[in-house]
Amino acid sequence: MKKIVSSVIATLALAASLNAADYYATVNGEKITKEDLEIVLRNPNIDFDILPKERKDKAIEQAIEKKLLTNAALKSGVEKDKSYKEALEKIKKDLALEIWMQNQFKAIKVTDKEQKDYYNNNKERFKQPATLEARHILLENEADAKDVIKLLDKASNKKDEFIKLAAEKSKGPTASKGGYLGKFSEDRMVPEFSAGAKALNAGEYSKAPVKTQFGYHVIYLESKEPAKTLEFDVIKNKIKEFLLQDKFRKIISDKAEKLKKEAKIVIK
Predict the structure, then answer these.
(1) Strand pairing report for 30-32 and 215-225
(2) What is the number of structural domains in the chain?
């Protein structure tokens, strides 16, 4: 088998004359396709064509061995084995259900009107809270926080001074970043902090310390985006997906209930 594997891999030098999307090797005339390689790679999202040569060779060797072993298993008469037949029947039933459900889903339609009606009747679901961008200086006590505010009051460049003081005095991991917290929705922070940040305009800092469970904060607001409702065109594809899934669940549920009523069911 090793000789067969080696000779097949060696023929890959001819790949330039072949369509890579067609096949990558042959085993006794059977093609090794991208689908075969996806199986041995165990991830359909991996692009085989951009893998390193060593990984490609290994995947092709695995696919070849799998093809050879599969054919050997079939020639052995395994299809006559009782456990094979039982497993095959189970697979057939599971596959029948899967294909049937896929067909049910494909038959479902969602109109533009249904999407727009859902959007108009459920606008509260598409509201985005205000987005804040802020820095903070976190201190252990109120007196220290007030001292920081006094230093900011005296500074000519408030932001630069804030960043400097955050690096020097703030406790916690944001000190090394000048107290920068990034952008966040107003409901992501503890209520006291969010309220303190919301009360500021962009470029302003806290005039009084903001107390939270973590300590005393001095906040500098970088920017603020008001709460808004997402436009229909932005969200319509997600609405369609939701409505398709919702209709599908209802169809399957209704069908199951109907079949239960018609069936003789005994639960021990």
Answers:
(1) unpaired
(2) 2
Do the Cβ atoms of 167 and 188 come closer than 8 Å? no
In a domain, 161, yes or no: yes
What's the rounded Cα separation, in Å, for the pair 169 and 183?
22
Per-residue pLDDT of the chain (268 residues; tens, 9 = 90+): 444 344 434 434 333 333 445 788 999 999 999 889 888 888 878 888 888 999 999 999 999 999 999 999 999 999 999 999 999 999 999 999 999 999 999 999 999 999 999 999 999 999 988 899 999 999 999 999 999 999 999 999 999 999 999 999 999 899 999 999 999 998 889 999 999 999 999 999 999 999 999 999 999 999 999 889 999 999 999 999 999 999 999 999 999 999 999 999 999 8
Look at residue 15 and tell me if it is in a domain.
yes
CA-based nearest residue to 107, from 267, 255, 261, 263: 255
Query: Cα(first)–Cα(last) distance of the chain, in Å?
Result: 53
Tokens of 201: 């305009």
* Residues contacting residue 226 through CB under 8 Å, at least 6 positions apart: 130
Helix (H) or strand (E) holding 45: none
Q: Is residue 104 part of a domain?
A: no
Task: Give me the amino acid identity at 235.
Answer: I
CA 231, distance to chain mean position in Å, is: 23
The answer to the question of residue 219 being in a domain is yes
CA atoms within 13 A on the CB side of 47: 2
d(CA 226, CA 117): 25
Q: Which structural domain range is residue 145 located in?
A: 130-226
Dihedral (C-alpha) 237, 240, 246, 251: value to the nearest 10 degrees?
A: -140
CA 203, chain centre distance (Å):
35
